[in-house]
Design brief:
This protein is of the alpha+beta class and about 475 residues long. The chain contains 17 helices and 19 strands. Strands 12, 13, 14, 15, 16, 17, 18 and 19 form an 8-stranded antiparallel β-sheet that branches. A 5-stranded antiparallel β-sheet has the order 5-6-10-8-9. A 4-stranded mixed β-sheet has the order 1-2-4-3, with helices on both faces. Strand 18 and strand 19 form a beta hairpin. Helix 13 packs antiparallel against helix 15.
Length: about 475
């Protein structure tokens, strides 16, 4: 019996896609930069079906690419460089059909969902129970919770709630031989040996396929205040962050830095967008405060902080959202960034993190280092400033990019310059996007031989045939 026949028996004929038009959305990343070919796309509906698919592929020696919402910035779920031929090309295992929320416990503040659940649907279900799931991303309308866990996604809420790793209580995982590990517990405390879930969080589908996730929820804020602030320098924005931290503490729910070039890209490609104030400012910050106590005076706190900043000569201008519609409009500018950057040119996205105190120095040094070699580049950036994560994006125009003789080498060189500056400051070259296939060589270049060897041992122990997500991570 051929492998395709076995796969159809496991999940049904309709859920094994082989026609080029059917598999096309699964073999190219959302920006259209990376693509490959596959034997088939398989769409199981249950954990047992995933297990059966994995077992059949393992027995046939065929590689598997787990795929969630397919929103990776580093080609983490794309079959890069593969050719289609039965028995040699990989199989994409799409979790789109496994999209149900299984349980919500508002007393214990937990939620259990299948891995294919769209992040926005999970957030909305939590809200219906008066709770909040703390991870918020620009791609939340299409990314899936299993992919978020596999990449340890960050987003705009990390300062208050932490990244995905800090939300995960338990996992259900299908291992590379098809065995099912049931670690789907909702306990806050479970001190019984190695905490295996952490191997799969951020593992990018190389150690197992996450099929269900148990996450922690938080009380739903009763009141928020959101403001758009503008500054002359990043150092002034850092001083503002320090003041807000002293005055508001963990009521800071977001603190996002954007430069003018980034805002112009949004305005160019979303004509209905309007900046709340001061469109000529070099830098803007979107800051949000939240509290579960409905009578908390966040308006007074915000106004007091802005008054102090103005007195210190740090603040150019500010606008406080007067209602939910204005708040949503502020955040829509932030969430339109990825799409506007995709349309604006060939942006070579980087995802560095440095100590928060070094953010201004990093931006200055990285900008100088890049533009000394490629003066034609425009630097756009958005930073989750409170946790030191800077998306520093050197951008070529499409016309400039088309004239480059070796685009791949140029992209590697530009990113390498940015990464070297971050690492020199005690930072990292990947804060929340992961490694995928794009940064495999950077992992080898910038991590110690011992770390790499330990990673290889772990991957070899789980997947000795190297069947899961080939060419990714390590």
């Amino acid at each position: 019996m051929s492998l395709l026949t076995q796969l159809r028996a496991h999940v049904g004929d309709a859920h094994v896609l082989t026609e080029p038009s059917d598999v096309a959305p699964f073999v190219e990343d959302w920006r259209g930069r990376y693509r490959g070919e596959v034997m088939a796309v398989v769409q199981p509906a249950t954990t047992m079906e995933v297990s059966a698919v994995v077992q059949s592929c393992a027995q046939a020696g065929v590689k598997l690419i787990p795929q969630g919402g397919h929103t990776s910035m580093v080609g983490g779920a794309t079959p890069v460089g593969t050719r289609r031929a039965e028995g040699t090309a990989p199989v994409v295992l799409s979790l789109r059909r496994m999209n149900r929320i299984l349980e919500v416990d508002p007393v214990g503040n937990t939620l259990v969902a299948q891995a294919g659940c769209i992040l926005q649907n999970l957030q909305e279900e939590a809200k219906r129970h008066g709770r909040l799931y703390g991870v918020t991303l620009g791609a939340e309308g299409s990314c899936q919770i299993g992919g978020n866990v596999s990449t340890n996604a960050g987003g705009t809420g990390v300062l208050k709630y932490g990244n995905t790793r800090e939300q995960v209580l338990g996992l259900e995982v299908v291992l590379p031989d098809g065995t099912i590990w049931d670690g789907l517990r909702t306990l806050r405390k479970d001190n019984t040996g190695y905490h295996l879930k952490h191997l799969f969080i951020g593992g990018e589908g190389t150690l197992g396929i996450i099929t269900a996730v148990a996450v922690r929820l938080h009380p739903l804020p009763s009141i928020t205040r959101t403001a758009w602030l503008t500054f002359d320098t990043v150092s002034h924005a850092l001083a503002c962050l320090s003041l807000f931290q002293s005055m508001a503490g963990d009521r800071i729910a977001g603190y996002e830095l954007l430069n003018r070039a980034q805002l112009l890209a949004v305005l160019d490609h979303f004509p209905k967008a309007r900046l709340p104030t001061d469109p000529d400012a070099p830098y803007a910050v979107l800051v949000e405060l939240s509290d579960t106590y409905a009578k908390a005076d966040l308006q007074g706190l915000m106004e007091d902080a802005l008054s102090q900043l103005a007195e210190q000569g740090l603040l150019r201008d500010a606008a406080i959202a007067a209602n939910d519609a204005q708040r949503a409009a502020f955040w829509q500018i932030r969430h339109n960034i990825s799409e506007s950057n995709r349309k604006a040119g060939m942006g070579l996205s980087t995802d560095v993190a440095v100590p928060v105190k070094c953010v201004a120095e990093f931006i200055e040094k990285a900008s100088a280092a890049v533009q000394s070699r490629w003066p034609e580049l425009v630097i756009v950036l958005v930073a989750h400033m409170g946790d030191g994560n800077v998306h520093f994006i050197p951008r070529f125009s499409f016309e400039q990019w088309a004239r480059i003789p070796d685009p791949a080498a140029t992209a590697d060189a530009v990113r390498g310059v940015v990464h070297d500056v971050a690492v020199s400051m005690g930072g990292t070259f990947s804060a929340e996007h992961g490694i995928g296939h794009v940064l495999v060589n950077e992992l080898v270049r910038l991590r110690s031989p011992l770390e790499l060897e330990l990673m290889r041992r772990i991957r070899g122990a789980f997947d000795p045939q190297a069947l899961l997500n080939p060419g990714k991570l390590i």
